[in-house]
Design brief:
- With about 425 residues, the protein is an alpha+beta fold.
- About 30% of the residues lie in helices and about 30% in strands.
- The strands form five sheets. Strands 10, 11, 14, 15, 16, 17, 18, 21 and 22 form a nine-stranded antiparallel sheet that branches.
- The longest helix has 21 residues, at about 240-260.
- The protein starts with a strand and ends in a 12-residue tail after the last strand.
- Keywords: ATP-binding, Ligase, Manganese, Metal-binding, Nucleotide-binding, Purine biosynthesis.
- This is Phosphoribosylamine--glycine ligase.
- Belongs to the GARS family.
Length: about 425
Amino acid sequence: MKVLIVGGGGREHAIARKVSESKRVTKIYCAPGNAGIEEVAECVSIGAMEFDKLVAFANEKEIDLTIIGMDDPLVGGIVDLFEEQGLRVFGPRKNAAMIEGSKAFSKDLMKKYHIPTAAYETFDSAKKAIRYLETSPYPIVLKADGLALGKGVLICNTYEEALAGVKSIMLDKQFGTAGDLLVIEEFMIGREVSVLAFCDGKTIKPMTSAQDHKRAKDGDQGLNTGGMGTFSPSPFYTEEVDEFCKKYVYQPTIDAMKNEGRDFTGILFCGLMLTEKGPKVLEYNARFGDPEAQVVLPRMKNDIIDVMEACIDGRLQEVPLEFYDNAAVCVVLASKGYPEQYEKGFLIDGLSTFKGKSDFYAFHAGTKRTHEGIVTNGGRVLGVTATGKDLREARNKAYEATEWIQFENKYKRNDIGKAIEEV
């Protein structure tokens, strides 16, 4: 098989590496890819939103399967376009990707089908939102309705903070048109857990659990980011929680989408909050999480191509999903200043240390190859990942491996997975 992966971040590197393990695959392309993905795939200089060029490339190279890694092209309808051309593609169609593309849509869906989530209101004007906030309890959560690179969520502790948040999202358009609608949500207390699941429109099969660290600084301080690190599995995601979510969240979500005429095929990402009153949905995504993919995929036993094809063909029920009884921790090495202002172009040293090691991974996120070598080219630069027999071992190994890598303005959180010490 010839496979094309669309995207160029750490998630796509994790997908490419997993695809490269398949005995069925002879050639992998990635558009646009990055300096790390080059090790397992041929990178093609086509952007993820250049749909016509991607379709033409898939036709020209006789690609057997295209995997869409990113949210923007999914919400933009890339799957529909590929299917119209008779090309096999993994990911939800445009009308199903709306579950991530609009937070107002997903909240309304949960309300209609009684899927547990936080109480909320939706606003199309800043004036109405501000009036609502005058009598709201605090803390409170503001969410830009559309896609915002994982950064469109603000937790506000005071009315003044909320006022500033409404101004930045709705009036200053910090996230562009994503802030045309604003969802204001009750603040939930509990532990966050991420569960990714394969779906074929009617069957949903959850993968092993993970936990992300969204804030930029230690102790969950600082601004929201795309994710500063992850661990898998979450010790807080018990069998009891799993049974509850299968019954009241996962299958009801797929059934709800089917009932709405939006059959969901691909990866459904459920961001959960484990509250005192039980698990509730924080958000949905329509693709692999980043950096969740970097800890979940190395633990997966299955040939990923077999599972993806079963999803496309509507026979996921036949595939037993299996994961190794181990653990993985990913620590993101970022550019100092991320997620705001940061410099690029610094030479990265130490990547060769990872070669030939089956339990260590350096997943490239923001990197670029130059004549001098591989340099930093983004806010999140690398996802340094290690597997171990348990979370403590994996965490120790991951942090040890972060010291193998050096580049100017290197920044990381020092408490990824620290919560496991409380278990």
